[in-house]
Predict the structure.
Amino acid sequence: DSQLNPVYTFDAFIEGDCNRVARRAGKTVAEKPGATSFNPLVIYGGVGLGKTHLAQSIGNEVKHTHPGKVVLYVSSEKFINQFMDHSRNNAVNDFIHFYQLIDVLIIDDVQFFSRAEKTQDAFFAIFNHLHQSGKQLILTSDKPPKDLDGVQERLLSRFRWGLSADLQVPDYETRIEILERKMKNDGLDMSKEVVKYLAYNISSNVRELEGALISLLAQSSLNKREIDLELAKKVLRNFVKTSSKEITIETIQKMVCDFFNVPYDKLLEKTRKREVVQARQITMYLAKMFTKNSLKTIGEHFGGRDHTTVIHSFQTVKDLMDTDLLYRESVMELQQKIQLAAM
Ligand code: ADP
Ligand code: MG
């Protein structure tokens, strides 16, 4: 038994800017397990952003398209517990041999390997054997491999052999799409108004979004009433991570200026100084991510630039985030600040 949950499919995993690289890498791996340079494939990102879903989608897809392959999904906790059981029974070799027979091994949440030295030794042996035999490894983690304190350097260096791809918080439009897909799957009906309200107010992660949808459903059936905006507002008031403050373009502009130490008025002028241009582009990107304003309105907040400038900035930031790790970290730090400010 592969221990996979069949509901986790690529089809159900909505693609957006937040997960495009990871999702496509996952697809590639599922098509040619063990035969691409994405080995291991490390999927990392915060809680509720789809690591387990995506990792399991790969497994389910492989089972479908390569029925002969042995696929196994295991959580790190289970892996560690199994190891300790075998260790107590002097059967570590059996443990290692068992895992060495797998074609596609998915280990979820490897951050729990931290400081489990003996388990890491066994995993090192398994990893080497599988990798050398052209078998596929897929790992997930709640942080980038370089930040996995307590994991042996020899393992981390092997994680770098393949591809590390991250999952980010979905932007507003992707959140709407995710909600609409969930509603369709569950045969639910909700006005666009309510969907937008949920997507706008719940920007922490996908699990929270699903949680809100479920509370809303429960309330509507309990009270035998339709899900309308009034009910949505009532339910969300009791929902933990609701944004209470509306994030405005001005708020984002101020935050970015503080962060990069760029004077506010420079953002609105035509200055072409590198750090000003960078701050301006990132602000436009974040404004598109975190506010409901149209591209036109966003442009107007930058000394009357037009919407094509905003589109260009958005694309530039996305491209740079894919290629420049330091840049990406700055943008992600800003995203976190904004999310905090919205709570
Ligand atoms: P993680 O393992 O990163 O904590 P999960 O994979 O458990 O997150 O995802 C949390 C929930 O959100 C799951 O129900 C999952 O199906 C859903 N989810 C996450 N990302 C997406 C997405 N891009 N499209 C649709 N559903 C998603
Ligand atoms: Mg998970």
Observations:
- The CA atoms of residues 265 and 339 lie 24 Å apart.
